[in-house]
Write a structure and sequence with these properties.
CATH topology: SH3 type barrels
Oligomer: single chain
Largest sheet: 5 strands, antiparallel
Strand content: 35-45%
Radius of gyration: 15 Å
Shape: elongated
Structural class: mainly beta
Number of domains: 1
Number of helices: 1
Length: about 70
C-alpha cells in the first residue's frame, strides 16, 4: 500500500487546461485576446494557438497570464 501511495505522489499533476479548450489572455501585451490551448511547455508555460493577422500563430506564454473562457 505504501508503494502505491508513493507512486501516486510521484505522478505529475493533472493540467488545469485541456488541449483544444478556449482560453483568454488576462495580462501582458496580448491582454484580452482569446486563444485555444495547444500544449504544456514545461510546468509554468503553455503553447497557445492565436489567430493573428488572419493566420494561426503558436505562441509560448506564461500560465499566469491565462484563464479558461
Amino acid at each position: 500500500m505504501i508503494r502505491e501511495l508513493r507512486k501516486l505522489d510521484s505522478m505529475p499533476p493533472e493540467p488545469y487546461m485541456k488541449i483544444g479548450e478556449n482560453i483568454k489572455v488576462v495580462s501582458g501585451p496580448l491582454q484580452g485576446l482569446s486563444a485555444i490551448y495547444e500544449a504544456a511547455d514545461g510546468l509554468s508555460r503553455s503553447i497557445i494557438l492565436l489567430q493573428f493577422m488572419q493566420q494561426n500563430q503558436k505562441i509560448k506564454i506564461d500560465n499566469k497570464f491565462l484563464i479558461k473562457e
